[in-house]
Amino acid sequence: MKRGWAWLVLAVMVTVFLGCVPRRLFWSPDGRHGAVIGTEGLYLCDPQGRLSEPVATNVELVAWFPDSREFIAVQAESPGLATWEEALPLIPEQRRSELIALAEQFRAEVFAYQGRWRDFKPSFRDQLTGGELVALFLYMRDHRNEGLPEKFGDDWETMKALRLVPRRLQTYEVTEDGARPGRVIATLLETLLDLRISPDGRAVAVTVSIPSNVDDGLALGRLLLFATQENRPPVIVANHVSAYSDWSPDGRFLYYGTTRTPPTEDRGAPVLGSLTRRQVVDDAGRLMTELPKPEDLVGLMFWSRMKVRCLVDGRVLFSTCEVSLPVTTAEMPQQIGLFVIDPDRQPTVSRILPRTAAADLEGLSLGEFELSPDGRRLVATDASSGVSVLTLATGQVDVVIPSEGTDNLPSMPAWRTAEELTVMVPAKAQYGSPDRPEVLRFAVGRDIRFSGSISRDWPDLFRKPESPATAPASVPADQ
Predict the structure, then answer these.
(1) Spatial distance between the Cα atoms of 66 and 61, rounded to a whole number of angstroms
(2) What pTM did the predictor assign?
(3) Are strands 192-197 and 203-211 parallel, antiparallel or unpaired?
(4) Domain count of the chain?
(5) What are 128-186's pLDDT values in tens digits?
(6) Side-chain half-sphere exposure of 382, counting CA atoms within 13 A
(7) Range of the domain at 87
(8) Which of 160, 194, 212 is the last residue of a domain?
């Protein structure tokens, strides 16, 4: 696809790989089952590395239910939707009317535009999710296209072939030899940035992408809430959120980063936001359809990859940079740190990561970190090729895989248990193989020790695909 339409391509491209390191390995809460996204599909494995046959295809994300017996797989539905009429069943009735109402404004902006098409962006772009933006274009292309072929010229033929790729939230139940599909929770027009299942398994929080005005593919999010066992419409929790939200330990609240001033064309401009929580489950354990007002807990510097994680003791961990206002542009901090707040006991913010340690954990700024199941440690990437473990109580950083001299990690590291970390390393990496990626085990205690590979007998699940991995099959890849 020609670069003149890069703004529209970003709306349908797979952006679940938010940073430089994708997510391909997901362990169940009990550590007995691993879900592995390979080039050809989704596989299950056990801690010893016994691998199933493929159980699903076109999988982009996985989230496990608390009982470790079921998981949700986010699956792209190829070849996608070619027309507005095909997309209609997936658009709520009220939203259809709102999108159609924008068509005239969209047309007016297209015809008024005189610059290079690569620089064109609709003024309302950050009001729509990526799927809604493409659906609106399909409506305009199919029903309000007078004069558009002439205006677009050669690009019109390319746009006529554009398809919208839905994502299905499909449940799977673990079996002795793999997994079998169960109920479909929802089918969405949007790319999913993240999903988090509630502590009781009755709801799932889903972040879908809202294309930002920044030309680097960094998407803001819309946070949605779905029931996992009931057929009911989703609840919109918040717009303009960061990719990574989390549930409170009691399952009543969602915590997330948000901003009222989305990023501008200037990527370096500071954006103010907040750490916010909103109650979504009532005291009786029922999902709420009318949500109370959100509570802004902490003012902070916001960016789209800000990550929020709730600790088992009720504290909330979040990543941001430390700044004192007023401040000049030259004095703006460049380093991300980790902070916690205990909203029910001590309404003050505490730094939990020494500044010297933060300098060694580049993954903090990309959301490339994850807490251990007991909340005592954190694993993070370094320069997209190294792996380090931080002990929260002491601030000690232990290097697991050095970052020098290797390709990017094929997957984010994943905790199997609080005492075992699994790391997928590229070919030629330390402890790995000379010709392909491997999944390595590390015992985590007073020190961190390599304890073997679980993938030595696997076929090459992670060979590079022939076409670009970031573009759905329905989007031409000749951009």
Answers:
(1) 17
(2) 0.89
(3) antiparallel
(4) 2
(5) 888 898 899 899 999 999 999 998 888 888 788 888 999 999 999 999 999 999 999 99
(6) 22
(7) 3-12+81-160
(8) 160
